[in-house]
Structures are given as C-alpha cells and as structure tokens.
Amino acid sequence: MTQHAPTGRPSLSALSAPLAAALVADVVRLRLGIDRVAGATIVDGGMAHPGGLEAGRRIAELCMGGLGRVTLQADTRSDRWPVQVAVHSTDPVLACLGSQYAGWSLSHKDEGGSFFALGSGPGRALARKEPLFDELGYTDSGDHAVLVLESGTVPPAPLVERIAAGCGVAAERLTLVLTPTASLAGTVQIVARVLEVAMHKVHALGFPLGHVVDGIGVAPLPPPGKGFVEAMGRTNDAILFGGTVQLFVTGPDDAAADLAKRLPSTESRDYGRPFAEVFATVNKDFYAIDPLLFAPARVVVTALDSGRSFHGGHLASEMLDRSFGGAEGAGTAG
C-alpha cells in the first residue's frame, strides 16, 4: 500500500494500518480485548479488559495516524507526580488536526438506547465529515480505517455500519478502539493530546498552519479518576496546568511572539480552577466553557527565521495537586 495520499502528503490510512494490526496482534500482552460488531474489529482498552499504560501509549500513536511518537518518561519537575507523557510529531498539523483531534460526532438512538462519542484517529480523513479537512486541503484514500472513541460502551451495529460506509471501507476493514476516560489506557491517550490541544488553539487563533514546522509537548501523567467526571477533570488539568509545548514556526518574530502570548491556557477567562469545578459551574455543559481554555499551561514558540524563542504561560503545580488528589505530605495516600 502506498504511504502517500492523493495530494502527495503522507497517507494516514496507510501509515496507521500496520499499527492497528500490531495492536490487535498484541492484545494478550497489552491486556486488551477483541470483539466483532457488524464485522468490524472492536478493541476493548479498559472496559471488560484492564489495558494499561503501554496500551494507552500505543493507542495514542495510532490515534496520530503513524505521524507521532509517544513516550512515558521521568518528570523531574515534580516530586509528587513523577511520570510525564511526551509527544512529538514530524507533521503536527496533519497528525494532530487531521487525525488525533476528536472531531467526528458519532451518535445512534433506537428503542435499545442511545450512544454518543466523538471519533478521533486516521479514519476521520477518509470520511471527511468535518469542514476542517477543506481548510487543511487534505484528502486520503485507503481500504482500512481506524477510529479511537473515548467511550465505555460498545457502539451499536447500525452505527458501526454507518462509520464504515462513511470511511468508504468494508466493515471488516474497520477497527474501533474504545478507551474509557477513567482507564489507564484512556488516561494516557488523552494526556498524549497535549500537542494536539495546542495545535487546535493555534488554528482557533488564526495563526497560519502552514507556518508550523515541528512540535513537541509534555504533560504529567495523572492517576485515573474514580469516575468519568473526575477522570475527565484530571486528564484536562494535566494539560491546562502541567502541559508544556514547543512549536517551531516560520514567519516574522512578532507573529511568533503574539502566538506565545495568546496560546497558553492562562489566557482564558475560565483559567484558575480544576476543570471538574469549571465543568460543574456550567451545569456540565461542555460547550459553555471558554474554548480558549483548552491549551497547554506553558508554551515556547521558536521562530526559525530568526532563531529567537518566545515564552508564554506558566506551570501550576498546586493546581495539579488539587486535581490529582490533594497536597498531602510524603508517605501519605495521594
């Protein structure tokens, strides 16, 4: 299979297919589960099967369409939360916005109940259900599709069939990876979006995406929350209060400096409280939250034309302690 899309850029479908096959082949070692719905492969990343950190790391790389590298490493910035998730992409625009971003709204309702999830991953570029792909000028083709769903329930067969049809592939060539927010794998793959969150805000701020050459990000790994809201709060806070991203851009220095100033989460009107508290304040209406909140805590923008770097935002370790489990002393429960 060619690794180039019709536009001459990398094919997310081609690059992700072997990653999906390897994930399925390693389900026993990774403590994942496999099921079939309407012929499609369903990977259980934390429902009936426990999954784990390595599963989450590999799912995160799969979610980036084969254009990202995710690692777990020591975080020397904190004596309480010693592990961080590091993310790098050779093509942050395509890997993050064209693949990893959760932009495909998937829902189904019948007499048996309802299902809703946001789809992320390389299959989005095959379906092109979002205007974003026209802005990116990107089209992909392929006979295998992969989506990652932050969900604790299995999508119903009619929806699975619609997803396959939307991607233009046979259901037997569709892989859906399910990672509940409160699972270990879900925690890793969400925190691994630290670079994607930055890229999404770069786009929202109107900075030219073609000027972003490279990017890397890190964020602390939180303990999984007890339920969906706590887990969602902790994974968001890891990025909002503990995430650092460095972008390498072309163009004038004043544009790079302005991006560094406006990009961090600290610039949002909703900054200053753990995400779960903000969520409760708006009566759990996700769309009532300032969209500019979703960004890393600290950014460095390096202007390649001049070699100068511009800094914005700051880390907030005390907010991480509040979110992740209090600020108890050494030797006590976190």
What does this 3D model show about the protein?
The protein has 334 residues and is α+β, with helices and mostly antiparallel strands. The protein has two domains: 149 residues, Methenyltetrahydromethanopterin Cyclohydrolase, Chain A, domain 1 (Roll), CATH 3.10.340.11; 142 residues, 2-Layer Sandwich (Methenyltetrahydromethanopterin Cyclohydrolase, Chain A, domain 2), CATH 3.30.1030. Strands 1-2-8-7-6-5 form a six-stranded mixed sheet. A hairpin with a 4-residue loop joins strand 11 and strand 12. The N and C termini lie far apart (48 Å). The C terminus is likely disordered. It comes from Azospirillum palustre.
How are the elements arranged and paired?
Blueprint lengths: L11 H14 L7 E5 L2 E5 L8 H11 L4 E7 L8 E7 L2 H9 L3 E7 L2 E8 L2 H5 L4 H5 L8 E5 L7 H11 L6 E5 L5 H8 L2 H11 L7 E9 L7 H15 L1 E6 L3 H10 L12 H7 L16 E6 L4 E6 L3 H8 L10
Parallel strand pairs: 2-8, 7-8, 10-11
Antiparallel strand pairs: 1-2, 3-4, 4-9, 5-6, 6-7, 9-10, 11-12
What's this entry about, in short?
The protein is an alpha+beta fold. It has helices spanning 12-25, 53-63, 92-100, 123-127, 132-136, 157-167, 184-191, 194-204, 228-242, 253-262, 275-281, 317-324; strands at 33-37, 40-44, 68-74, 83-89, 104-110, 113-120, 145-149, 174-178, 212-220, 244-249, 298-303, 308-313.
| Share in helix | 25-40%
- The end-to-end span amounts to 48 Å
Let me know the number of strands: 12
Output mean pLDDT.
94
The largest sheet, given as strand count, sense and whether it forms a barrel, is: 6 strands, mixed
Beta content: 15-25%
Q: What is the H level of CATH, i.e. the homologous superfamily of the largest domain? A: Methenyltetrahydromethanopterin Cyclohydrolase, Chain A, domain 1
Supply the number of helical segments.
Answer: 12
The strand line-up of the biggest sheet is 1-2-8-7-6-5
CATH topology description of the largest domain: Methenyltetrahydromethanopterin Cyclohydrolase, Chain A, domain 1
Just name the CATH architecture of the largest domain: Roll
Task: Give the C-alpha Rg.
Answer: 19 Å
Number of domains: 2
- Topology as H/E string? HEEHEEHEEHHEHEHHEHEHHEEH
CATH class of the largest domain: Alpha Beta
Shape: globular
Q: Which stretches are poorly predicted, pLDDT < 50 over at least 5 residues?
A: 329-334
Which structural category do the helix and sheet elements fall into? alpha+beta
